[in-house]
Amino acid sequence: MDKLTQHELIAYRNLLDKLEAQLLDLKARCVQLDNTIKQTENQCFVFEVHLFPKRCLTLSGYLEQVEKTYRSLCDAINKQRQNVLIKHECERFIGQFQVLLKLVQGLENGDAKLLYKSYSSLKEQIFQRLQKQYDYEHRLLNMISEQEDLLLNSLLKDKAYIKEKIAALKVRYQKCNTFTQKLEFQLEEIQDD
């Protein structure tokens, strides 16, 4: 198993404290901008679906999704989940935070064209499929982690069965990850065109 050492855990918690401070700063900026920018159902912020699965009419709505991802990252670290699961949560948090921060900085500088970015329908379809893949990968990683925790506390007679379940979940994860990478390559090809 790929669990965190005590030193890594302390380092992660220190980083989480710094991220929380940055998140609070971003929240204040979002609230301030929300008071000046009016969104409608026809004109709203549009982000890649794989970053923000729920469309919102306010920056604060997107910030709530970033905070949810942050809490999920904290939970993964505090429960000392596998490094691969922590990495996945961290990448998701960074992606969401960076995109929202870029939009906030652009709006603060008067760059309103960032507001209504749109995506082609093919691109949107790939984003939606990617979101489902990311969610499925996340669930599989959680299932693997839970089974590995169960393995530690199981009776000897149950260990072989649990190991088989873990092996099967890892095969499913590999297949899922391969398909995810294929979708990511398709998306890159569309963006390069």
Walkthrough of the structure:
75% of the residues lie in helices and 0% in strands. The chain is mainly α. The termini are far apart. The mean pLDDT is 82.
Report the average pLDDT across residues.
82
Q: Percent of residues in beta strands?
A: under 5%
DSSP, total strands: 0
Low-confidence stretches: none
Instruction: Classify the helix fraction into a percent range.
Output: over 70%
Tally the helices: 5
* Shape, principal axes of CA atoms: flat
Key phrases:
193 residues, 5 helices
Structure, briefly:
With 193 residues, the chain is mostly helical. It has helices spanning 6-34, 59-78, 83-108, 121-152, 156-192.
How does the SSE layout of this entry go?
Elements: H1 6-34, H2 59-78, H3 83-108, H4 121-152, H5 156-192
